[in-house]
Automatic annotation (TrEMBL):
Segments of the chain annotated as binding DNA: 42-61
Name of the molecule in the record: TetR family transcriptional regulator
Entry keywords, A to Z: DNA-binding
One function term, GO molecular function aspect: DNA-binding transcription factor activity
Pfam assignment, any one: TetR_C_4
HTH tetR-type domain mapped to chain residues: 19-79
Upper taxonomic lineage: Bacteria, Deltaproteobacteria, Bradymonadales, Bradymonadaceae, Bradymonas
Organism for this UniProt entry: Bradymonas sediminis
Amino acid sequence: MRTNNAEQAIMTHAQKKRSDKRKRILDGALKAFALKGFYNTKVSEIAQEAGVADGTIYLYFKNKDDLLISLFEDRMEWIIERLTADLKKFGDDVLAKFRHMVMIHCRLAVEEPKLAEFITIELRQSSKFVKEYKNPKFGDYLKIFQTLIEDGQASGIFRRDVDPRLISRACFGALDEVLLQLTLSKADAAEVEDKASQVASVLVAGLLERPASSAD
């Protein structure tokens, strides 16, 4: 029994060490991509940021494109976990949830500027990502938007004549463009809050159920 426990402890330690090193590489890649861009960043520069040997990168990732995709999935998972936890605070208030999701997305420009730049700029530089990646994590993110719209339709708050799946993509497209502009202009927190609030109001207004017109 003691031997098994010791072996398990050793395996757990090894797994944690491997996980920590993978995280360091992902963090280093985010810094390097934000500093020099995806195309101009060398694997050796990522390794330097992560504090590992160049060859270590290839023990965890096939190539730079694979690293970029893994970084996207890792950060999207973090965003989804944060959103899921935050939205629970609003109970059944669909409008508050929708507005908060818009605000969280836009706030990346000031709260996580390197991540915002990575999402809005660097991902587009990888032809493999644009052409081949099926975006499972991106799909999970869109599903949150889609579910909010469906909940709003079910409760009579949002229009029923729109396709939730289509509109969730339209919402993301709008937010992605807004986040890009906020990131490039290095907007401060006050400007981000103001513009995010404007975008949230417009998106919500377009989704609200229209009151039935009364006959004269």
